[in-house]
């Protein structure tokens, strides 16, 4: 095997195999490869199995990579075997869909490409025998061509994997990593495998050091011919890929739906637990000791019951709004005076939040909307301002005309919003990472509910930084001229 260029010269579409005995042996070759991807603005996905994700973090940290920052922005994904294996992963087509989906997600998220480092001992759990493994790796070659900015290194443990699995790796990877060099693989026969040929009974052994570096011209020529055959085969598979595209989209949607469901159930169960615990606890106290409790304690318990029941009702209502308006339901609008809707709420805000809430602007300005919608939006925005601003700071609600729009703004002197957060604040379950999750209450869907309510009313919502500190959330609705 003639020695080739370094691993950092791996071209787009590159698919390599790396053999190792001890997991620590992988670091010198892999860390520069992974670091290069992060430096180039790519998403890096590493599947740790023989090593641990903590091991990989240690390798990367020692090279100067800010692990926390890269993980928080989604550039670095360190997965375990359990996170990598998904339902149906014993099916080649499903696994191929997963790779395409990950590449599309990286592109949609603004990354310049994607590169993978995968410890192939996960195949032990997927029950891939040598024949299935060589078919899978050969198929994988068709997913990584020079037109896609994707690179992959598959790592094979000579200690844990069978000799048949190692032979399968040699047969299905066009290149191999020897030390820190990328070398042509003379045993590569994926094109023949994809055509349905090849001598499956041929005995292959890991190349000895002498064979690995002998520079056999005949073997190298055969490698080049096989590469050409592979390119021909890959082009022939494009039509089949088109036929599978519809199935890919359905599978992608199912994965997204399952992930959303899991996130939803986790958040809802956490958020409902607190009010339910308070309600059940106070109900039990009143049931057992109600008659013997002082009047002040009974009143306090009943107040807690009402407060938590209202909170529970609000959570359920928000969930219903987000679910119902996700179907783009529209409402029959009518002339509404937003200021008139806000006025009766202000006294309650002052008492409940123990801070001043002020109304100003054009109190006679009308909008096409529904009163419940305006009330729900204002309540959400004021509650959001209350949670993210210091106690005692007033909250301002302004109503003014903006061209042919009625603009209702809620202004606070809180932590404000960063440019990056502007892109996420209306996403379901989003919360600012600058605030401890114990400091805020709710599911993080109030702003999502506002956005969807407004979409159903032909309106919109925006967020801006407030001069002098804080944020301004403004929602806009079509103006309606109100007669006296």
Descriptive account of the structure:
With 484 residues, this protein is an alpha/beta fold. 48% of the residues lie in helices and 17% in strands. The chain has helices at residues 27-39, 53-62, 67-72, 81-84, 92-108, 130-141, 163-172, 190-194, 209-212, 217-236, 238-289, 295-325, 338-353, 371-387, 419-422, 446-456, and strands at 15-20, 43-47, 76-79, 114-119, 150-157, 175-178, 181-184, 334-336, 357-361, 366-369, 395-402, 405-411, 460-465, 471-480. Strand 13 (460-465) and strand 14 form a beta hairpin. Helix 11 (238-289) runs antiparallel to helix 12 (295-325) and helix 14 packs antiparallel against helix 16. The longest helix is centred in the middle third of the chain and has 52 residues, at 238-289. The N and C termini lie far apart (90 Å).
| Strand order within the widest beta sheet | 3-2-4-5-1-6-7
Terminal CA distance? 90 Å
Instruction: Return residue spans where pLDDT drops below 50 for at least 5 consecutive residues.
Output: 197-223, 229-233
Percent range for β-strand residues = 15-25%
Q: State the major sheet.
A: 7 strands, mixed
Overall form: elongated
Mean pLDDT: 76
Radius of gyration: 30 Å
* Class of secondary structure makeup: alpha/beta
> Helix fraction?
40-55%
How many β-strand stretches?
14
Number of discrete helical segments: 16
- SSE arrangement, N to C: EHEHHEHHEHEHEEHHHHHEHEEHEEHHEE
Strand and helix layout:
Layout: E1 15-20, H1 27-39, E2 43-47, H2 53-62, H3 67-72, E3 76-79, H4 81-84, H5 92-108, E4 114-119, H6 130-141, E5 150-157, H7 163-172, E6 175-178, E7 181-184, H8 190-194, H9 209-212, H10 217-236, H11 238-289, H12 295-325, E8 334-336, H13 338-353, E9 357-361, E10 366-369, H14 371-387, E11 395-402, E12 405-411, H15 419-422, H16 446-456, E13 460-465, E14 471-480
Parallel strand pairs: 1-5, 1-6, 2-3, 2-4, 4-5, 9-11
Antiparallel strand pairs: 6-7, 8-10, 10-14, 11-12, 12-14, 13-14
Helix pairs in contact: 6-7, 11-12, 12-16, 13-14, 14-16
């Amino acid at each position: 095997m003639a020695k080739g260029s370094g691993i950092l010269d791996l071209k787009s579409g590159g698919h390599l195999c790396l053999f190792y005995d001890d997991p620590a042996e992988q670091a010198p070759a892999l860390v520069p490869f992974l670091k290069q991807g992060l430096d180039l603005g790519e998403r890096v996905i590493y599947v740790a199995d023989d090593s641990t994700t903590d091991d990989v973090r240690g390798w990367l940290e020692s090279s100067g990579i800010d692990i926390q920052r890269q993980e928080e922005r989604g550039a670095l994904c360190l997965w375990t075997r359990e996170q990598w294996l998904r339902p149906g992963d014993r099916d080649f087509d499903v696994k191929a869909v997963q790779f395409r989906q990950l590449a599309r997600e990286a592109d949609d998220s603004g990354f310049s490409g994607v590169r993978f480092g995968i410890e192939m001992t996960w195949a032990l759990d997927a029950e891939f025998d040598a024949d299935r493994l060589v078919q899978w790796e050969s198929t994988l070659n068709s997913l990584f061509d020079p037109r896609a900015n994707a690179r992959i290194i598959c790592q094979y443990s000579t200690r844990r994997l069978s000799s048949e699995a190692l032979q399968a790796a040699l047969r299905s990877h066009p290149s191999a990593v020897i030390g820190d060099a990328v070398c042509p693989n003379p045993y590569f026969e994926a094109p023949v495998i994809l055509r349905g040929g090849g001598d499956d009974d041929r005995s292959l052994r890991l190349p000895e050091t002498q064979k690995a570096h002998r520079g056999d011209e005949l073997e190298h020529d055969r490698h080049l011919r096989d590469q050409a055959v592979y390119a021909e085969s890959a082009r022939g598979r494009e039509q089949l890929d088109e036929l599978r595209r519809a199935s890919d989209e359905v599978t992608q949607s199912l994965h997204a739906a399952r992930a959303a469901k899991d996130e939803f159930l986790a958040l809802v169960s956490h958020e409902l637990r607190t009010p339910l615990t308070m309600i059940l606890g106070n109900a039990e106290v009143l049931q057992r000791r109600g008659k013997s409790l002082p009047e002040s304690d009974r009143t306090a318990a009943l107040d807690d019951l009402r407060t938590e029941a209202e909170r529970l009702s609000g959570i359920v209502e928000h969930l219903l709004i987000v679910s119902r308006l996700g179907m783009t339901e529209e409402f029959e609008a009518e002339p509404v005076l937003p200021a008139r809707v806000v006025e009766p709420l202000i006294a309650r805000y002052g008492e409940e939040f123990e801070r001043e809430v002020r109304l100003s602007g054009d109190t006679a300005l009308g909008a096409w909307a529904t009163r419940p919608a305006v009330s729900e939006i204002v309540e959400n925005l004021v509650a959001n301002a209350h949670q993210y601003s210091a106690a005692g700071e007033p909250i301002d609600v302004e109503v003014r005309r903006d061209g042919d729009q009625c603009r209702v703004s809620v202004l606070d002197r809180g932590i404000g919003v960063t440019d990056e957060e502007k892109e996420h604040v209306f996403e379901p379950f989003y919360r600012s990472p600058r605030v401890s999750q114990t400091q805020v209450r709710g599911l993080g869907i109030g702003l999502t509910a506002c956005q969807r309510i407004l979409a159903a009313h032909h309106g919109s919502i925006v967020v801006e930084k407030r001069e002098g500190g804080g944020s301004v959330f403004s929602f806009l609705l079509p103006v309606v001229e109100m007669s006296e």
